Amino acid sequence: MAEQVAAALGGELAAVVARKIGAPMSPELAIGAVAADGGRIIDEVLAARLGLGEPEVAELADRAAQEVRRALADFGGHPPVSGRTVIVVDDGVATGATLRAALGYVRRSDPSWLACAVPVGPPATIDVIAHEVDEVVCPLQPDRLRAVGEWYRDFSQVSDRLVAELLGVA
């Protein structure tokens, strides 16, 4: 999706790497996320409800940070964004943890203007994201969103190889 947006706007394509911190018993359930600079978003209420203490959350976050470092090495790192207009694009958002970690990283890098574009996300999550960016675009905001993939005909994973190709680092 980001490649299409960059092409349509004549912009530069780059990857902003952040990773979900998944619950041990259900890795798709985000208890938080970690960004490239180590910035973390943690849902402390959810972690406590799942019986996860700080040591367990820290271990899970450290594993996610290792994945971020690997992806940064594979994708050539992040371009400088200070003073630039940046649009962070994602395929959709549910809890928003990973996207919020990525947006936080970009915001800490001092862009002149930060926007977020996602095709689908629940209104409550989009409202939270709207407070963290200068503009958010999300045309589909269903009240009940079980999974982003239910809004796609084909929600196949994009391989790291294809991402590297699109970024020109393959």
| Beta-strand percentage range | 15-25%
Instruction: State the strand order across the main sheet.
Output: 1-2-3
Distance between the termini: 18 Å
Strand tally, please?
A: 6
Which residues sit in consecutive blocks of at least 5 with pLDDT less than 50? Answer: none
From the 3D structure, determine the CATH topology of the largest domain: Rossmann fold
Helix content: 25-40%
What does this protein look like?
With 170 residues, this protein is of the alpha/beta class. It has two domains: 2-14 and 78-167, Rossmann fold, CATH 3.40.50.2020; 18-75, Ybab, Chain: A (2-Layer Sandwich), CATH 3.30.1310. The protein contains six helices and six strands. The protein has helices at residues 2-9, 44-49, 54-75, 97-108, 123-130, 160-167; strands spanning 18-23, 26-35, 40-42, 85-89, 113-117, 135-137. The strands form two sheets. A three-stranded antiparallel sheet has the order 1-2-3. A three-stranded parallel sheet has the order 4-5-6, with helices on one face. The longest helix has 22 residues, at 54-75. The protein is globular, with a radius of gyration of 16 Å. The two termini are 18 Å apart. The model has no long low-confidence stretch (mean pLDDT 93).
Quick summary:
With 170 residues, the protein is of the alpha/beta class. 38% of the residues lie in helices and 19% in strands.
Task: Provide key terms for this protein.
three-stranded parallel β-sheet, 6 strands, single chain, Rossmann fold, alpha/beta, 2 domains, Ybab, Chain: A, globular, three-stranded antiparallel β-sheet, 6 helices, 170 residues
